[in-house]
């Protein structure tokens, strides 16, 4: 199953300074709006003043009305603050928390999933929330395929979704597939039947007065500012300590960085190479950041072309890389070198086979050279290796022009491979040309992403499953391996955790030894915050949610944990 929509993934990977990244090319704040945003979020001597949380989670110009949670460019705050999910699943440690549902149960054959729906929840227009709304939401995705971003129906997984009574939802599957729980319970935002049943396509529905079960209602919409106000009817209103959420539109990441440093923004999500000096040093007691590893940046080698179809070449390239340098030079040391297993560490440490506990951080040029020589490759008089046809090993490395961290990675890789006798030409192109090359296999070497989930299955399934071969999925390297498919299918057909762990560790071995993709460094969810006005933020010692302001429904978990400083 393809785990995420391509547009979403583009955003998620490009919240970078001067970069404009994929599923996430955003985040900054507009200088003119600082006064309108509320300047100082809370007041310290006047308890009657509203507590206002200023959130830098939108970059790139004015807001347009996109207030449906199924709009592909839904406005910030719509998901999480207004619309909620059945469960909250923490992507960092794979724990889950009942939310709009209080319980779930799988049938013995894992082909039926039954949810018990929470009692006493109301929509913010006063109408009762029930199982009928949940069943309607899932059947709406069946009717409007563009809204089915997780491929629940279009992927052929769901057979039916019904509500036999007001507190029960029964989901029947075409085949056993327990990993769908994350998408069904944790990533599907439930909408009110009485509003959406006459709205048509939810991806285009204006939804100007959004009605949700969440703790906030839309108070103000303008091209420059979104304001959400606390709802007194929220089903856990006692947990809501923040009166208003302000999302200003933002010009660029540089502006956001400046305003965050000035204390005019409480919560931001962006990449900058110098946060210790430009942000933390301005107020060390309150200014913090935590770059949560959630995905992996990787080197794709086109497996359909020689010599990349030779595992010895892939192993040599991986051995030649200085991942510590990649981390420091391209990502300012915010993230660690990636494990060649494809596991996102330390998040996935419980799945790690001890055989692969050592992450290769520095270049191993001698090992790389020996791998090539033992495989029958020889160097020419120019010092570069020749492929089996006698042609100099010289390859284009494709990257998006302007994605500065990835461009820095290319420079490091170019030098690392030159050191062992492989020539690299950096091919920097515009993003549309890059996506075309990546999706259709029009590249030799390419910088890209490996997308993670609550456990390693999601990354492996997304990028190794032959059912996800590009251009229809994210298997961009064209890995087509029966053993990988068998292990993935075996994992997906059971809820036996011991069996699942065994399958994951077998996939680790394939990834680490066969290197269908070469992991480089972990990829982070960028997250900066100030504790001057609010306390309760997640950090590495209290990782109750992914910290990025753009991550949903983690954003809701964070706001419900915040307490204004009095």
UniProtKB/TrEMBL annotation:
SUPFAM superfamilies (UniProt xref) = Periplasmic binding protein-like II (SSF53850)
Ranges for domain Solute-binding protein family come to 97-466
Which superkingdom is the protein from? Bacteria
The record's InterPro entries line, in alphabetical order, gives: Peptide/Ni-bd, SBP_5, SBP_5_dom
Could you tell me which CDD domains the record lists for this protein? Answer: PBP2_TmCBP_oligosaccharides_like (cd08509)
Q: What is the official name of this protein in its record?
A: Peptide ABC transporter substrate-binding protein
Question: Which organism does this record belong to?
Answer: Ktedonobacter robiniae
- Please name the taxonomic classification of the source: Bacteria, Bacillati, Chloroflexota, Ktedonobacteria, Ktedonobacterales
């Amino acid at each position: 199953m393809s785990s995420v929509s391509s547009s979403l993934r583009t955003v998620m990977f490009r919240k970078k300074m001067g970069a404009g990244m994929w599923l996430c090319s955003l985040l900054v704040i507009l200088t003119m709006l600082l006064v309108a945003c509320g300047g100082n979020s809370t007041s310290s001597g006047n308890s009657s003043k509203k507590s206002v949380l200023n959130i830098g989670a939108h970059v790139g110009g004015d807001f347009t009305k996109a207030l449906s949670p199924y709009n592909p460019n839904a406005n910030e705050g719509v998901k999480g603050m207004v619309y909620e999910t059945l469960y909250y699943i923490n992507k960092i440690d794979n724990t889950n928390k009942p939310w709009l549902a209080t319980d779930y149960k799988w049938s013995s054959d894992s082909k039926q999933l039954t949810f018990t729906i929470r009692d006493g929840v109301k929509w913010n227009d006063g109408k009762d929330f029930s199982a009928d709304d949940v069943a309607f939401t899932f059947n709406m995705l069946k009717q409007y395929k563009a809204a089915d971003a997780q491929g629940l129906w279009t992927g052929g997984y769901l057979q039916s979704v019904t509500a036999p009574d007001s507190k029960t939802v029964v989901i029947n599957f075409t085949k056993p597939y327990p990993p769908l729980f994350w998408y069904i319970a944790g990533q599907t935002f439930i909408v009110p039947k009485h509003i959406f049943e006459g709205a048509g396509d939810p991806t285009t529905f204006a939804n100007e007065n959004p009605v949700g079960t969440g703790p906030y209602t839309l108070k103000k919409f303008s091209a420059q500012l979104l304001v959400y106000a606390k709802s007194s009817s929220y089903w856990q209103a006692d947990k809501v300590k923040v009166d208003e959420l302000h999302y200003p539109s933002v010009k660029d990441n540089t502006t956001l960085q400046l305003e965050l440093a000035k204390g005019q923004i409480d919560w931001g999500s962006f990449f900058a190479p110098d946060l210790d000096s430009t942000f933390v040093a301005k107020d060390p007691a309150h200014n913090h950041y935590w770059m949560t590893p959630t995905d992996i940046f990787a080197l794709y080698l086109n497996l359909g072309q020689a010599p990349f179809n030779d595992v010895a070449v892939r192993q040599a390239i991986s051995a030649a890389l200085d991942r510590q340098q990649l981390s420091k030079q391209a990502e300012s040391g915010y993230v660690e070198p990636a494990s060649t297993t494809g596991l996102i560490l330390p998040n996935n440490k419980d799945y790690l086979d001890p055989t692969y506990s050592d992450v290769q951080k520095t270049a191993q040029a001698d090992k790389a050279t020996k791998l090539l020589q033992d495989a029958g490759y020889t160097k020419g008089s120019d010092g570069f290796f020749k492929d089996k046809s006698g042609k100099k090993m010289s390859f284009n490395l494709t990257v998006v022009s302007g994605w500065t961290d990835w461009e820095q990675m290319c420079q490091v890789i170019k030098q690392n491979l030159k050191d062992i006798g492989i020539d690299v030409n950096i091919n920097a192109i515009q993003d549309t040309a890059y996506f075309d090359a990546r999706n259709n296999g029009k590249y030799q070497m390419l910088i890209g992403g490996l997308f993670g989930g609550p456990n390693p299955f999601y990354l492996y399934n997304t990028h190794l499953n032959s059912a996800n071969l590009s251009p229809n999925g994210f298997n961009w390297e064209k890995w087509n391996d029966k053993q990988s498919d068998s292990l993935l299918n075996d994992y997906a057909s059971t809820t036996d955790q011991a069996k699942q762990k065994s399958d994951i560790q077998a996939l680790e071995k394939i990834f680490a030894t066969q290197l269908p993709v070469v992991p480089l460094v972990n990829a982070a969810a960028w997250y900066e915050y100030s504790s001057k006005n609010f306390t309760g933020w997640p950090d590495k010692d209290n990782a109750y949610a992914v910290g990025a302001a753009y991550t949903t429904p983690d954003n809701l978990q964070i706001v419900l944990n915040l307490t204004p400083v009095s």
